[in-house]
Amino acid sequence: MFRDLPRYSETRPTMLPWASAVPRHWRLERAKTIMRAIDVRSVSGEEELLTVSSKRGVIPRASATVSMFKAESYVGHKLCWPNDLVINSLWAWGRGLGIARHHGIVSTAYGVYRQRNTDLDPSYLHELVRSEPFQWELQVRSQGVWKSRLQISDERWLDAPLLVPPAEEQTAIVKYLAHANARIDKAIAAKRRLIALLEEQTSSLRHEALGESAGQWPVRRLKTLLIRVDQGVSPQAENQMPSPDDWGVLKAGCVNGGVFRPDQIKRLPDGFAVPASLRVANGDILVARASGSPNLVGSTARVTGLRGKAILSDKTFRLIVRPTVDPDFLVMAMNSYSYRQQVQGAISGAEGLANNLPVTALRSFVFPMPPLTEQREIVERVTAEAARTLDTIARVAGEAQLLQEFRTRLVADVVTGQVDIRAIAATLPDAPESFDNTVSATNDDLEEAMSEGEE
Question: What is the pTM of this model?
């Protein structure tokens, strides 16, 4: 269903920078001809609490991956209903919008829009406004001094141009993308399961190497092995990777699973004052301070393959070790089973700090530490044994990333009429085949925290 997608036989040019040519029979309408702003407030404040995620659109707050601000009362807060378009006015440019599937309470800072008629399939509109090309439209219609402070008003949103295919074609697009997303999700889930198994193998190798003589080594607290612990900042970054010449802030998930992921970075806005003390370099040891998943809190890796310019986020610690400690040995120890047990105890026992590793707890963790020469011998042996597995992990992770990029490009081409999927959609069953994804998606708490943040 992905190969040799045909083009439309007849197209016409437009003045849109994000869709220079569209199918001739598609209409171009201003949003205000199709929808209107609504502002209905809660009387009881007891409706379900909703939020807007840049990753998932409009979702119940209960399913959000980060702790969120809670008001004393939600009386007087805005309401939305299923099929309403909800826009986080401060985060529209970062994909902070989507179609609501629930009735509930949203932030008073959000815009809520309802269709005047049934001209647009809500699911098609959801895909269009969250697509990569349409982000250009949202950016230029948002106003502010810095990109990270841009805000879109009702008036400027309602003046935005929308592509409107015929109703039956909208239905075909929604159906095709549902099947495409299901297949891509299934392929990505399979790769993540493989990565999880390979990482477990690597962990077993490390555990065996550390357990052979651990009883003979002196036990040291982490604070005695370090010169210092650095912690970063959380600026409002842009929802895109930086160019080689731009500065970026590393995402919370950059060390998930004990492997450094150089692509987990977001561009810092122009004019951001980069603190020299927080600049990250290859060889640094990073620790995840917080995550949406308790299993990822405390993930530790050494920075490798970083080609651009990056700083720490406040969701990440950097460890500066003493000369008597081999950095790779410490990273190995901080990916062991005994370390994970200490992390789990620290985050479950920290009242009000769920999925958050306090620096005081981190510094108190204990590790059996052999002499420096023995540390290096163990690292060399385990590295040689795990080299093939680590190469496979890197390759499979790259394939998963390519699938995500393929999805982005496919959705963009479909919703802007660059490919014709009508014939293929007609052959597909009404609902895509479901699958059991037993490995959750990589958490990106920094992005979620910024896009889901409330009043």
Answer: 0.76
